[in-house]
Amino acid sequence: MYITQGLQRHLQQRPNAVAIREMGRSLTFAGLAERVARLAGALKALGMASDDCIAMLSRNSQRYIEYALGVPWADCVLNPVNTRWSVAEIVYSLCDSNSRVLIVDDTFKDMGAAIAAQSPCVRHVIYAGDGPTPAGMLNYETLLAEAIPQEDARRGGDALLGIFYTGGTTGFPKGVMISHANLAFAGLSAMTRGFFGEDAVFLHAMPMFHLADFSALYCLTVSGGTHVVLPAFSGEAAISTIISEQVTDLMLAPTMIQMMLDARQADTQTCDIALGSIRYIVYGASPITPALLDRACEAFPAAGFFQGYGMTELTTGGTMLDAEYHCAHHQQSGKMYSAGRAVNCVELKKVDSEDREVPRGTVGEIIVRGPNVMLGYWNRPEDTAQVLRQGWMHTGDGGYMDDEGFVYIVDRLKDMIVSGGENIYSAEVENALSSHPAVAQCAVIGIPSDKWGESVHAVIVLKAENHVHADTLVAHCRERIAGYKCPRSIEFREAMPLSGVGKILKNELRKSFWENRTRNVG
């Protein structure tokens, strides 16, 4: 398999079908293939050779999809850059991957100039915006217009597709090496669940630099569905685009679902008619609370909800909780609180510190084996050897499995709070806090304690126009979990620090507590 295979098929069979819709504009499969071939030709004209790395720093766009397909078409390697990073982090990733070209849009053109100045490996900066071309940069559209279309290299199989850098939560980011085969498996596995059919209209709401959206991009290209591009996410923009484009499939983080539901309240009648077009909602990055699920089911009455658990090293996919397990019965049975079961062709088990499988119901580290597991970390053989042992990817996540193979994520093992010799899993405390009707978001972390080693600290964002005392929340928790697990301290914030996919950045919450200490749990 190779990532451009789907485009080749639809160029042959459905050249005039719409491949992409963005801001009222449409592009057919024939038009997309022409632009992808020209981008590959432009890269060759700039001197790019096989295996050269091409980076892109941009919001979601049609040109991002062209980049995702055009770079492998040219027999080169992708480096999608995290748009939330600092200049220093981006420079590190470019130099680490030896990226030869950096493509930037209007949002990042000024940052792109600063980055290029600090990145000696970057030979060319390409401006893929709609304004005047900044000094020292090449114009994307001019390059395509002047390029000789390149034949598809059909790069595929175990060849490196891209280097997808982790979020940098511990030190400098690590480059995860994903092959064409990795992405093909992840995409096809998702399609067996019914997602991304030929008639699918998928909204790219998550950032395209993230591998989860890349997986969806691949699926749509294989199936021949339509890409609808949302440059940057907001609840209002997402709802407006769903209405105007009659979107059928979504991939979101629970925080994004909540933002959409909050925006829906401004015009419930119009929204309720339009949101009935949604058939599938895949969510991940964190579990969904029952209260939020109830609101979402009301807003999206025809949608099936699916939870995916994974990570970049697993090409995003490890388990899936199907729609049937989101009903009231499975909320009562507890199945809804699981991350589902291993996806097709993937093995998963829980092990102790010596890699011995633990009994069902016992917490252990989740390890995964299958065609979705990364090739390794770029230029980090020791880190690769540490997590890839005997063919198993050691996730660093703690959890247990029931007798039917459902996996329950307890916590990141590194996020486990050890207080007075007791192991406290923050997810359990967060579940108790989030069940309070005034709580919109919460995150639980361990902070230094001279007496206990670590103490349980909760960060809370309240729902609009809600007020509650910290002692009330602690009492609420005591009714649901053991006293030693309850927060010893609570702080209220207006907003949480979030990653590009809406995941709460606990390392940012910990930072002020653990600075200048010999132990740093972040």
UniProtKB/TrEMBL annotation:
NCBIfam families: PRK06187.1 (NF004837). PANTHER family: 2-SUCCINYLBENZOATE--COA LIGASE, CHLOROPLASTIC_PEROXISOMAL, ACYL-COA SYNTHETASE. GO terms for molecular function: medium-chain fatty acid-CoA ligase activity. The lineage of its organism: Bacteria, Pseudomonadati, Pseudomonadota, Gammaproteobacteria, Pseudomonadales. Residues 428-503 form the AMP-binding enzyme C-terminal domain. Residues 7-378 form the AMP-dependent synthetase/ligase domain. Belongs to the ATP-dependent AMP-binding enzyme family. CDD domains: FACL_FadD13-like (cd17631). SUPFAM superfamilies: Acetyl-CoA synthetase-like. Keywords: Ligase. Pfam families: AMP-binding, AMP-binding_C. This is Fatty-acid--CoA ligase. GO terms for biological process: fatty acid metabolic process. It comes from Pseudomonas alkylphenolica.
